Amino acid sequence: MNEFPIKCYFAYTSPFTYLAMSPVYDLENGYRVKLRFIPYGVNIRQVYGGEVEARDERNRRKLHYLYLDARRLAAEQGLTILPPKKIFSARFAFYGGMCADDQGLFRPYSERVFERFWKRQLEVEDPVTLASILSEVGADKRKFLDYIANEAAEAKPRLKACFAEAQADQVFGVPTLVIEQERFWGYDRIDWAKRKLDALGLRRTA
User: Fold this and answer.
1) Which CATH superfamily is domain 4-199 in?
2) Could you tell me the pTM of the whole model?
3) Which of 10, 11, 22, 134 can bridge 141 by disulfide, Cβ–Cβ 3.0-4.6 Å?
């Protein structure tokens, strides 16, 4: 039987995506499924009231609490989440993820990007550092460097196609799993996704 496709919309700058990645990877171990990771950018300025210094008290409290929750959950997985001090663009990291995925190396690349970004050890907007991570995991970085040098030719259209697909799937945040056009948004919805897969008879047997 062919593996059943599941879409996973993600963002490297989303702490809750970081928390979800290991449980999402595990779906392929427990079920006859094939994960497809699709970049999706959330407009943080729009959602949380602009630049960090421009946010009102309500949005500051809300974001402070969300990071408090994220750090509690991260501690349960042995992960570190340090809130970023500014809003970052993840598009270069997305380009690196695309190149890694094309070479079957999405997971090792993404694990390093997530871990180092959330420990404040990675400048996620620096293509040189991202290229070094690609090399570190054994990927050919030449396509990535070409993406950066000629961004408008291929990289941006490919990323825009991902965002358009997200729009068609009615995605509004990350992480979001899409199974048979049904959405499961958030780190804490993975168990519901498993129930869906169980209902479809996709659980692996011994």
Assistant:
1) Glutaredoxin (3.40.30.10)
2) 0.92
3) 134
